[in-house]
Amino acid sequence: MISIHASAVCRVLDGYTGQPLEGSSLGCTLDGVPCRPVSKPGGYLVLVNLAPGEHRLSLCCRGFQEEWVAFQADDGTRELDITMKPGAGYPFRQTITRLELTVEVEGVPAAGRQLWIAAEGQPQLKLAQTKAEAGESQLRLYAKGPEAAVPTGVYLIADGSHSEIVGLRALQEERGTLAAPLRYSHSRGKLLLPAQRYHTGADGRLTAVFQAAGVVQVYAEDTGLLASLTLEEGDNRQTIQL
Fold first, then answer.
1. Which DSSP state fits 20?
2. Is 44:38 a contact under the CB 8 Å cutoff?
């Protein structure tokens, strides 16, 4: 009997609209070798029977920038989220807000750095309990609007030096379930902002596109909250120092 183990389940979304991208439209490479994951409705890709250890999944799709994620395979099933970022040929149907961000270390472009960018706006999600303690994975959350409109996925808890990235796996009756326990404690009213992962190129730059102008938070897991940027409609160019 052939044993099949789901090593990783990856949900792939259009980072601009938030809608799923189906596997038939994606080109996939695992550890530098083309592969064909099992496609499931809703933008899910399933990688089976991977060898234990570190792996890198790269995805490409017409109209999007190439995106990748590194993960560790073991006896369990890893849950991954990938948001594909608009690139050349993306069919925008409205005026957009674009950020070209240059990341430097002592004036030198920081190539290959992973950052998270989280936009403030709708839907608004915030902590609704007096204090969420470090180590908790069940939170009371208040959504401004219907809970059904709040997507699961990756969020930034914007809390100064205690800001952190969390994975929201479910939200029902004001009870949110996280993919992993909190690293820090947070007080009532702290916002959870939908966040997307970006990687800088060889020139230290990345490009992010948003549906509306507003404030975005830039975060790195190794250094914390880096910047709060106010973006205007159209093209925006900013430089930050690590």
1. B
2. no
Given the DSSP bridges, would you call strands 44-48 and 53-60 parallel, antiparallel or unpaired?
A: unpaired
SS3 at position 47: strand
Per-residue pLDDT tens over the stretch 1-48:
567 889 999 999 999 988 999 877 899 999 999 999 999 999 999 999
Nearest to 168 by CA among 143, 131, 133: 143
* pLDDT greater than 60 at residue 192: yes
Question: What is the amino acid identity at position 128?
Answer: A
User: Within 10 Å of residue 238's Cβ, how many Cβ atoms?
Assistant: 15
How far apart are the C-alpha atoms of 15 and 17, rounded to whole Å?
6
Give the tokens for residue 181.
């326990």
Which tokens is 141 given?
Answer: 């959350």
As a whole number of angstroms, the distance between CA 197 and CA 199 comes to 7
* Phi, psi dihedrals of residue 11, rounded to the nearest 5°: -95, 125
Measured distance CA(237)–CA(231) in Å, rounded: 9
Residue with tokens 């080109």: 27
Instruction: For 83-97, write each residue's pLDDT tens digit.
Output: 999 998 999 988 899
Contact 69, 57 (CB under 8 A): yes
> Per the structure block, which two tokens stand in for 211?
């549906």
Residue environment code for 4-15, b if the CB has 16+ CB neighbours within 10 A, otherwise e = eeebbbbbbbbb
Task: Tell if the pTM clears 0.85, that is, is over it.
Answer: yes
* Residue with token string 């044993």: 3
